[in-house]
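dumping this here so i dont lose it
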């Protein structure tokens, strides 16, 4: 079906308006880079085809944004996030236009750009955010591929779909859900089954796009794959039955997708299973519900974080929003609820250093990190240390970021076994510094040269992430670990 006219300008007006407000408020955001954000920025300083725990695209995007801006401030590190979400909303609008029509395209674009998970993802840059537009583009090209007459189109569509899906995979491995689920749908419904030649081109383009990351994993002992298995938990530790974890995960989905949209999504699944809601293509449910089901199973067997099913809500938005258009009061209520969340969250980040719940800052998890790093660099200079070493990933992440222009090098505690994070993998202390080393943030470890270590006054974190935590400090000889 040809894409109807007249939806792009209204949809773009809504998406651009929301995005412009987000960018404006982001400029006044008072939060520090979170641990993962600082790590992604640091990866971008050492461009590679893969990294310890994630594929490489987020690092490349952040590096490109900060190079163009000529600045590494949190604003520029995070700026791609709202822009990528805006692009995703427009791609989903284009899919909705082809499936349903003009009004549905506008409604879908507006709904996606105001989702709670998108509001959070526009404040803190994440791999989901970078994956979404490429995954949406892959779905758009795939939809065109199975709809259009094979005799009137070029091979650019299957190649583009494969490349877009490969780029989504290079942002987050969860993109592979769509490869598997479209294959399942193609087995069930001939109407969404690509021609064998087109399917081969999709797989070829996908394989070539992800090949550098696959090669990097092979060369680096499958580091990212191993970390992913560790996250799953039961793969190494055995499975249990964590029904509380399942309830927590499913409850969190009301916050991720929006309380009304997720409730309606669950209802739509029941109605469609009973033979209703025929106007909603079943493939959209096949591309969304199994992802929620798989992550729910993971939650029962071990644990699952709220965003692990985020990929489901691209197809999920395409399914539930047009269905709710026949229930306009519920859809309007959803826009109001999600719209309020979209406004409250960035405003709260602007006042993050003042908003409190009792004695604690509401957003304390995202504050106090740069302050601690500055204090550690000051102690290191005053004590004559030639480097800082820590075994704490959180502390290391911000030390590398906040100290990016400092002359004092930072290293991770050298591990005897497999490295527990990127800093231990790529930046372990080698023991070759010319002067003493400041050791900060020991976690249940003993210094190998304890007899030669000089304890320094412990540091207590200020308001924020390290509130009420005591950071132990020692000045040790540069060859401390060689004595082990």
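and the seq i came up w/
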């Amino acid at each position: 079906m040809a894409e109807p006219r007249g939806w792009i300008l209204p949809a773009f007006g809504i998406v651009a308006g929301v995005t412009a407000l987000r960018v404006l408020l982001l400029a006044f955001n008072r939060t520090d880079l979170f641990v993962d954000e600082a790590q992604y920025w640091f990866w971008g300083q050492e461009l590679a085809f893969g990294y310890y725990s994630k594929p490489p695209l987020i690092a490349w995007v952040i590096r490109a944004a900060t190079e163009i801006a000529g600045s590494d401030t949190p604003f520029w590190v995070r700026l791609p996030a709202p822009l990528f979400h805006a692009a995703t909303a427009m791609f989903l609008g284009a899919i909705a236009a082809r499936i349903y029509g003009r009004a549905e395209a506008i409604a879908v674009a507006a709904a996606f750009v105001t989702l709670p998970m998108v509001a959070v993802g526009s404040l803190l840059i994440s791999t989901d955010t970078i994956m979404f537009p490429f995954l949406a583009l892959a779905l758009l090209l795939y939809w065109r591929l199975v709809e259009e007459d094979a005799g009137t189109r070029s091979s650019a569509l299957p190649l583009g779909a494969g490349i877009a899906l490969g780029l989504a995979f290079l942002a987050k491995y969860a993109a592979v859900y769509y490869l598997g689920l479209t294959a399942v749908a193609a087995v069930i419904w001939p109407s969404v089954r690509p021609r064998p030649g087109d399917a081969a081109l999709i797989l070829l383009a996908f394989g070539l796009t992800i090949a550098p990351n696959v090669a990097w994993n092979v060369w680096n002992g499958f580091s990212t794959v191993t970390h992913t298995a560790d996250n799953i938990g039961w793969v190494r530790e055995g499975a249990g039955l964590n029904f509380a974890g399942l309830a927590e995960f499913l409850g969190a989905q009301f916050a991720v997708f929006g309380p009304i949209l997720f409730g309606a999504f669950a209802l739509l699944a029941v109605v469609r299973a009973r033979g209703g809601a025929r106007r909603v293509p079943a493939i959209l449910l096949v591309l969304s519900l199994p992802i929620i089901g798989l992550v729910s199973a993971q939650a029962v067997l071990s644990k699952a974080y709220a965003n692990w099913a985020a990929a489901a809500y691209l197809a999920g938005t395409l399914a539930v929003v047009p269905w709710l258009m026949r229930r306009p009061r519920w859809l309007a209520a959803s826009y109001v609820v999600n719209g309020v969340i979209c406004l409250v969250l960035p405003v709260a980040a602007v006042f993050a250093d003042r908003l409190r719940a009792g004695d604690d800052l509401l957003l304390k998890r995202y504050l106090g990190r740069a302050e601690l790093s500055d204090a550690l660099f000051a102690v290191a200079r005053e004590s004559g240390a030639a480097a800082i070493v820590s075994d704490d990933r959180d502390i290391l992440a911000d030390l590398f970021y906040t100290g990016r222009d400092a002359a004092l090098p930072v290293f991770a505690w050298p591990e005897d076994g497999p490295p527990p994070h990127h800093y231990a993998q790529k930046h372990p202390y080698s023991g070759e510094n010319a002067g003493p080393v400041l050791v900060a943030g020991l976690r249940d470890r003993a210094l190998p040269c304890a007899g030669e270590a000089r304890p320094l006054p412990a540091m207590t974190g200020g308001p924020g992430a390290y509130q009420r935590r005591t950071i132990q400090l020692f000045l040790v000889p540069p060859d401390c670990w060689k004595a082990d």
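The first helix runs from residue 8 to 26.
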